[in-house]
Structure formats: C-alpha cells, structure tokens
Amino acid sequence: MPSASDASSGSSLSSTSSQASETTAFERWRKQAMLITGLGVTEEERLDALQQLNLQRCEKMKKDLMDSSPIVVFMLKHLRLSGCQVPENNIFCGACEVKPVAGGGVVAHAGSFIPEPGAVKLCAGHFFNKKHMEHTIAHELTHLYDQCKFKVDWSNLRHHACSEIRANNLSGDCRYTRELRRGIVSFTKQHQACVRRRAITSVSANPACPSEAMAEKVVNEVWESCFNDTRPFDEIY
User: Fold this and answer.
1) What's the domain range around 123?
2) Quick check: 237 and 172 in contact, CB under 8 A?
3) Is 140 assigned a catalytic role?
4) What is the pTM of this model?
5) Residue pLDDT, tens place only, 81-129
6) pLDDT, tens digit, for every residue of 24-38?
7) Could you give the number of structural domains in the chain?
8) What is the DSSP letter of 86?
9) Of 128, 162, 196, which one is at a domain's C-terminal end?
10) For residue 113, what are the β-bridge partners?
11) Residue 145 near residue 82 (C-beta atoms within 8 A)
C-alpha cells in the first residue's frame, strides 16, 4: 500500500508536470507571437519559420489529397495502368520563387512538372485552399500521364502545347470559380478561353519557343484534337 509520503510525492510530480506543460504551451504561444509580429526575432528567422510551417501544411494537404481526392486517386490509378508508378515522394512540397512582373504585381506559381524523373513539385505557401492544390496536382499529373503514355518530347512545341491544353482542360484549372479568383469574368466560352490563354502562356515559357506569337500559332494548330482528347477521363472533369 502506498505511504502518505508516496502520495505526497506523486502529487508533487503531477503538479510539476502540469506546470511544465503550461510553461511549454506558453513558450510555444510566445514564440508564435514573436514570429507573427516580428518582435524579438530577425526577419530571416521569421521567414524561415514561416516557410517551415508552409511546408508542413503543404505536405499534409498533399497526403490527404493523394489518399482521398477522387481526381488525384483516379490519375494515380491510370498512371499505374499505363506502366508509370508514382511514389509518394515524387509529389513533393518545396519553396518556389515569386517573380515580379512588369507594371507591378507578382507571379506565384502553384506547382511544376519535372520530366526527369517524372516528379511534381508543389509550391508551399502558394495555395489558397486544398481545392487549389487538388487542381494543381491533377494538372501536373496530366503532364506525367502524357509523358508516360504518349512519349512527349518537351522541346517539341506541338507536344508541349497539346499537353498544356489537356492539363488545363481536364484538371479543374479553368473552372468558372478559378477564373473569378483570377479576376477574369466571361459569359461565353469562358472555359475554352482560359485553356487557350494558359496553354499559350506555358508554351511561351518553353526555352525552345522564340515568341508568344509562335506559342499561339502552335496552340491553335493542335487545339481541336488536343482539346477533345480527354484521356484518361471519359469527359471533362
């Protein structure tokens, strides 16, 4: 049977543990407040902590989507059926540049496809919600699907244009709500206009593309067949 001194000791330990827990919680709160306000920390420390937080949130959202998003799960399944395995770490979160544009403002890309080794980079901190990330993953996985199934040569502008048309068409990137968030409102052929615009922008950034005019020309040349090619979907998602 425990003695009175044992009971007293146990009570003391419990009290000490509770105080330590409260202190730890307070320290976490204090550190978070310092990072948010910038008081007591350097700008470098604040930005580094923010980046780490963004990476953690990004990885959590990514895992949730890979496990439960209908379109992401569907794309991963059809990649496997096409002979392309996509390990979880081939879809990864990382820091991405925010590029200034002429006339003010910035361009913050949400993700990118890396042909070798067939990976998708998600830009931590550049997503406004989980649906945005879902569309981005679906977009980049469409590029991976095209590379796997159709042996895309990314230096061939026609190949690149076709994959960009398909990725923007099928991923959800050009839904009406996404265009509204971009500040673009159209009541006629909004979806097609978005797909075309975004495809031209992407092809223009290809090092093999000499001009935006050439990008537009190539997109127009492959438009009909590529816009109507919804594989592996039966129809536009």
Assistant:
1) 25-128
2) yes
3) yes
4) 0.80
5) 999 989 999 999 999 987 765 555 556 789 999 999 899 999 999 999 9
6) 776 777 766 666 666
7) 2
8) -
9) 128
10) 120
11) yes
